[in-house]
Design brief:
alpha/beta; 2 domains; 17 strands; globular
Amino acid sequence: MTLINPPLSLYIHIPWCVQKCPYCDFNSHGQKQQKLPEKEYLSHLLDDLAEDAKLIGQREIHSIFIGGGTPSLFSPETIARLLVGVRQRVNLSPTAEITLEANPGTVESERFIGFQQGGVNRISIGVQSFQQEKLQRLGRIHDGQQALNAAGYAKNAKLRSFNIDLMHGLPDQSLADAMFDLEQAIAQSPPHLSWYQLTIEPNTQFHSKPPTLPQDEVLWDIQERGHQVLTDAGYQQYEISAYSKAGQQCQHNLNYWRFGDYLGIGCGAHGKITQAEQGRILRTVKVKHPKGYMDLSRPYMDRQNTVEQGELPFEFFMNRFRLLEPCPKQDYQDFTGLVLSQEVSLNLQGAIDKGLISETDTHWQVTELGQRYLNSLLEMLV
C-alpha cells in the first residue's frame, strides 16, 4: 500500500455553549451561568496536542478550525494563549487559515477585535436565521439585530475572511421566509456563506418531538430560488452547502472534503492521520465528556484504529463528491494507496450511466443531478 501524505489541518473542540439547541447533535454541553474552566481546559488541549504531535512528525499544519459548542465563550486572551501553545508544539504554516466559531449572542465588537489580535483570521458566525420566531423555535439565544451586529463586528475586525452560517427548511418556513433570511445575509457581504438544510438527527430534542417542516416541494423551491439568488449576488457554490466569493473558499473544509488529514483535539474530537511510511491511515477519537477528558488518571485518546482497505473507496468518494470541483483520479491512488478495483470501477460506471457523475481521462466530477441525489450516488459506491 503506497500512500502520499495529504495536506494536514487541526481541529480544536470547545464543547460548552450557553444552552443546547434542540436540533444539535454535536458534542456540546449547556453551561448557562456556570463559570467555564478555561485555564484548565486550555492546559488539557495543549497536552492533548503534544501527544498527537508524535503521530505527524514535522508535517506542516495548513489550517486550524476552533469549533464547538460555542468557542467564542472563551476569552480572547485564552484563545491567544491557545494559538501560542499550538505554534510551540506543531509546525504551523505562517499563512494558515485560523477559524473560530462564534455565536452572535456571545460577542461584542471588542471581543472580535481581541480574537483577531490573538491570531484568529477567520470567524464563522452561527446566525441560522434573522427572524425572531424562527430563532426561538431553534432555541437560539440571539435575536436578528444581534446577528446583524455580529456581521458588522466581523467586517470591522480586519479579518482575512468571515462566514455566515444560515439554515433553511426550518419549522413552518415558507419560501418568502427563507429568501428574507438569505437576502439579509447577503446584505452583510460575507466572503463566505454556509447555507444548509435543517435535518432531524437522532439524540436531539427535535428527534423526540419533531417540528413541522416544509413539504418537499417547498424545500426544492427554496433550494432552487436560493441558489439563483446567491449566484446573482456573485457567490460561487463549491460544496453541497457552501458558497463563497472568488478565492474565499474555506480552506479547512476543502481539506476535509479532499480527503486531507486532520488532527482532532478536545472533547470527542475526531482525527484522520495518514502515515505514509507505515502504509496506513489512522482514525482517532478523543474522550467525549469534559469530566472524563480532564481526568488526569486517563488518556485523552478514547480509541484509535487503522482504516481497513475495504472502507477506503467509500470514505474517499463520500468526501470528494461533496465538492463540485473535478476530482483528480490520481488523488484516489495517492491518498488511499489503492489501485482502482474492478468493483469500484463498475460502481463508478453505474453512476456515470445514470448521469450522477461525469468522467474524463484524468478526473471525475459530480453532476448537477448527482448533487441533488448525493445520497443515492454514495449508496451506489458502497
